[in-house]
Amino acid sequence: MNPRLSVCLLVLALHAGPLRAQEALGAAGTPLSGELLSTFVTIGMLSLVPVFLICCTCLTFSLIVFSICRQAIGLQQSPPNLVLISISLALTYFVMAPEFETAWAAGIAPFLDGSLALAEAAERTAAPFRAFMAAHTEEGITRMLRETVARNQDRPPESVSDFPLMVTAFLLSEISRAFLVGFFLIVPFLVIDLVVAAILMSMGMMMVPPAVVSLPFKLAFFVVANGWAMLTGSIISRY
Fold first, then answer.
1. 228: closest CA among 84, 57, 74, 61?
2. Cα–Cα dist 189/92, whole Å
3. Is residue 230 part of a domain?
4. Is residue 23, in this structure, part of any structural domain at all?
5. Total domain count, the chain
6. d(CA 159, CA 153)
7. 75: in domain
8. pLDDT for the residue 196
9. Which of 47, 176, 209, 213 is such that its CA lies 20 to 30 A from the CA of 30?
10. pLDDT digits (tens, 9 = 90+) for 52-71
11. Residue 215: which residues within 8 A CB-CB, separation 6 or more?
12. In a domain, 121, yes or no
């Protein structure tokens, strides 16, 4: 490319932002248009999508279960983390498609059309996810968090803010259940490790690492048992 043309394009790109801002302000210095403000709010909301997926959906549970399963088999980097995250995201969308559709139709779409204020749109968007989290949160964890916050801040438990408490209790509930599922996943593979170790010791092959010998047996067991289908089916049926 011509160097002069490159310099001209760079200058135009640097000045494009201020020129658009001046157009939005107008000749009389009026405030930014509602459309531009809506764009800024949308970009800000998109930056919070990863946090939202971790805190308010079943992504955390799925990802922990898949990671524990990989560790139980004895595979360190296969499937890679990117593959596990992709599978967990696909399962999250499959499980929570009704909540996503309701949030879009009730809150996000009307806000983008300009027919709904930001506060009301946020409330309507959060409503289906509130219901989802409430249905999958252990009551004991919610009570413990509410009483702990109330005791530390010297105020009645009923005055504790509901949404932050619900998100925290939901996350703890998901992690607790994921660890419980992980325990039942590890046990059969641990039995295979113990059997292989006992056989190697009886043959006098104590210098051979049992984990290396048991790996193909654990993989074969997982494949024959149709492990991926059973695991994903169990995760979906839980919700």
1. 84
2. 27
3. yes
4. no
5. 1
6. 11
7. yes
8. 87
9. 47
10. 888 888 899 999 999 999 98
11. 73, 74, 75
12. yes
